[in-house]
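Lab notebook, bench 4. Still working through the backlog of constructs that have no structural model yet. Next entry is a single chain of 383 residues. Request: give me the structure tokens for it.
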Amino acid sequence: MEFSKEEILAQLERIISSSTFAKTAINVKLLTFLVHASLNDTEVKEVTIGNEMFGKKYDPIKNDNKVRVYVYHLRKKLKIYYTEEAGKDEILFSIDKGQYRVQFYKQNSTNNKYRKRIYWIGSALFLFAILTIIYFGFLKRETARFWNDNINKNFPTTVLIGDHYTMMGPLETGGSGIIRDFDINSDAEFNSFIQKNPEKASVVSPNTYTYITKMGAYCSKHITQYFDQQDLSFNLLLSSEWEISNMNDENVVYIGQSKNLRSLKNMLEESFPQLSFNNYNIAITDSETGEKVLYSDTSSDVLVDYSLVAKITGPAGNSLKFFLSEHDGGVINSLKYFTNKDSVEAFYNQHQIGDRDFMALFKVTGWERTGYNIEFVLIDFKE
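Model written out:
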């Protein structure tokens, strides 16, 4: 090895103590783990990193590309450090794409592999700069302020699409099939129902299949296109697939009905105790009068949906965002509103939001779910 272990560990300490790595505990922990593994010539696999980072049995299939997202962000942080803070004689830490082993180079080395890499990086950056000007000029929209913590922070982002709980049981046609009861939205609620109605235990049973409405397909496409424009990698899951144990490890964006919030519901109501969900209504208690106001969706010639949008800072400094409505129109149009830079900028300026956590209610109206109009109703901030 070209460098001693002591020299490499000293370089590690310089990096993790730098301003680039300040307040990025995940990157510090990951880099420290990978450097020590590389020094010990330990073979590192995705599942090994997952177990180390999350302190539990890591399933690469269930957790999708979470580890790769972490390593991707670590490479970006290292690049920023060596560009903005490193001295010219410092040891260069490099993690090749698709690899987890850390390579160690001299910054001023004549190592052919490294020099060629710099040459091609320089050429690529020049071409990228030209293409970026074209791209920003014609295609790419600027990031709406609402999403800054997803773009700039060091937590991976997971988008959850609310899916509906289903059961198996008898149908009106005389056969059996999938049943949806809007008052039963989890195994816990199903078990509670059976305890109160034991005679139903032999008639209905929990189903392994769930379903989403058209908002799921539309919003998945819309958020994918938006995040792709921001060069943001993210995981996409159904809300039934997500585990509350991941709460501190990632930014979460929930899109769907309040009934399908599952374990996230407590987090939302604890952050905004004036908020509750009552059957098919959004209920908000006025902080001055103590009066509870119900906002109910209606279906007449002009259809009305009430949509709640909330932003919360999680326990680990991560971000939780919610787009909630009982019908497709409210969710779809509030998501469109908050991925439009102009509408978000006007909203933030009007209500002087800054970096505060908030919940906002919108009234979405439309004629047979077409030609929607979104209207601000109220906003409240987390104390």
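Notes after review: Confidence is low (pLDDT under 50) at residues 109-116, 133-141. The first strand starts at residue 91 and ends at 95. Flag for follow-up if needed.
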